[in-house]
Each structure stands twice: as C-alpha cells, then as structure tokens.
Amino acid sequence: MLHNKKELSLKSYNTFGIDVKAKSLVLLKDPKELSNIENLQDCMFLGGGSNVLFTNDLSKTVIVNQTKGIDTLHQDNDYIELEIASGEEWHSLVLHCVNLGYGGIENMSLIPGSVGAAPMQNIGAYGAEIRNVLTFVKAIHLDTLEEHKFTNEECQFGYRESIFKKEAKGKYFIKSIGLKLSKRNYQVNTSYGDITAILEKKNIEHPSIKDVSDAVIEIRQSKLPDPKELGNAGSFFKNPVILKTHFDTLKAKFPEIKSYPIDDDHVKVPAGWLIESLGWKGKRIGNTGSHKKQALVLVNYGNVQGGEVKKLSEDIKQSVWDTYHIKLETEVNII
Q: Is there a smaller number of Cβ atoms within 10 Å at the N or the C end of the chain?
C-alpha cells in the first residue's frame, strides 16, 4: 500500500539536507502503486536524494522510491545477470555483489544514491562506468503506465549522460536495471594512481575485487565528506571536455594545468583542479562553501538555503570561465 507522509519536509530525503517542503509526499514500496497516484507527469521522483539541490518549496507531489529486490536472471560458470529494483541503495548493492564474488562494479563503491539513478547519470568512478556492465533498464511510462525495456544501446550512454536526461527526461519511472557481472576471471581495474598507491602500501600484488572495493572506499572516505555529517551532493560539477587545441593554448599559459586524453581532438580537464587553482577550495561563504579536501564538493555548514549553494556554484563557474574560458556544467540537478 502507499505510504503518505504528513510531514512534508524533504530535509531527510536529500543529502544536502535542504529544508524545503513538498505539496504532498508519497513513499513508494511497489511500482504497481503508481496507478493509484494522480497526475504522475507532474510528480517529482526521488531516490537517495544524492544528486539534487532544492532551491524552493515544491508545489507538487514528491514520490520517494523505496522499492527493493535483487533477483538472479541467468548465470553460468563465468557470469551472472541480476535484476535490481531501482529503490535499492547503490553502495549496498556493490557490497552485496563483492561479498558474493560478483565483479564489475567494485570501482564504483561508495557512490551515493539509488540504483535507479545509476543509469540516468551513467555513474562511474576510477575507470569504471555502469554502461560497461548494464544489460537493460526497465522503465514505466508515466502517461500510459506501460513498461518499456531499454537495451544498453537504447540508453544512449555518454559521460554522466543517458537518454533519461535527454529526450526521455521526466517521461519514465525507472523500475529496475539488469547487470551482467563476472564470477571468475575478473578484469580488475587498478589503473588509477590512488588505487595503485593503496594496494602497494598494503603489499597487495594480485588484488581481488574486494581489495579494489576496499581501496576505493578508503580513497573516497579520505577525500569526500559524509553527507550524514556535512550535507553535500558529491561532485557538484562535471569534468569538462575541451578541444586539444584549446588545452594546448592553456598549457602554454598555465603549465600546471592537468588533463586526461579522450580522443585525438579532445581532452578532459579535472574540474577540481580548475576550481582549486582559483582559490575556491576550502573557502566558506555564509552557510556554504567548497570542501577543504575536495574543491568539487559544495557543502552545507548548517541551515543552508538552496539559493546560497546555487549562487556559489554560479560564482565558481564564472570564475573558471573568466580565467580559462572553460564552461563548467553542474552534475547536480538544481530544482
């Protein structure tokens, strides 16, 4: 049955801890219950609330996705395919799979949020992205309540992008996803220096998927604030991709600037480096600021208003543009 909340504050349903109110609040336990909700197209869906910044009260119904379930669809000696309900917590799923010896998502340990948000964002970390293991997304059309099964290709994955952030945005409720994971012959990815450094420190020459997961967790905990202690939504900005010719010009003027190759014509520039280079890292403005250990993370120092965080993000973007002529895009959804 549907669970309607009398307390309409969304403070405990977003990791920034922004205290805004909704017109009404529904806790969704079963996708079938969607048929009992009027005007679904005008509702807002929330998962873990880890990728959203509220700037005002909402004059609409907010549906908090609390659906659960992990089912095995197929398996053989090498692989297993799971179907996971969209309301499951992503990190809990990663730990579940690592503990059972299912490899492929261990590099994405400790990414906040729900399973349903994972394909929307094409989440990724430390050389891995969900599109590398995702087999399908089952989604319910909000107009017709018909279920559609999107293949990996139909999801149109890009860097922190998918069809669910473009032409399908606001049209579907993601019900579940499919993941194909390894049961042996793991392709362990330790290409990032931070992971390698931790493994070397622990004298681990042949890391297991759990070793990699543990290393990623250690790295993230050392760099990123826990939302339960300091409200935040993780990385606020995407790492911009620019033309190599533009980067070469910048390199001549700013020799310390960092980059990662994308293709022959483009490079990715770390947004954190750009922000830190301009003195924003650790800078506090009122109730918000850029975190002292990770410039990409904007935080709530207590009772922050969403508009304060939005203003800070706009000032940072303008600062980066004025100096480097690079346009930063927000990874967080501002509402």
A: N
Q: If DSSP codes are grouped into helix, strand and coil, which group holds residue 111?
A: coil
Rounded to whole angstroms, how far apart are CA atoms 110 and 32?
30
- 3-state DSSP of 172-194: EEEEEEEEEEECCCCCCCCCCHH
46 by DSSP, 3-state: which?
A: strand
Spell out the residues 6+ positions from residue 7 whose beta carbon is closer than 8 angstroms to its own: 25
Residues 198-240 have pLDDT tens digits of 999 899 989 999 999 999 999 999 888 989 899 999 899 999 9
| Strand ranges across the sheet with 147-151 | 70-75, 79-85, 172-182, 134-141, 147-151
Active site residues: 160, 235, 331
Cβ atoms of 164 and 174 closer than 8 Å = yes
Measured CA to CA, the distance from residue 182 to residue 212 in angstroms comes to 15
Instruction: Write the single-letter amino acid at 213.
Output: S
Beta bridge partners of 214: none
- The strand pairing partners of 148, in sequence order, are 139
| CB burial readout 102-121, b (16+ within 10 A) else e | bbbbbbbbbbbbbbbbbbbb
Record the pTM. 0.86
Hey, what domains does the chain have and what are their CATH numbers?
Answer: 3-65 (3.30.43.10), 70-182 (3.30.465.10), 231-334 (3.90.78.10)
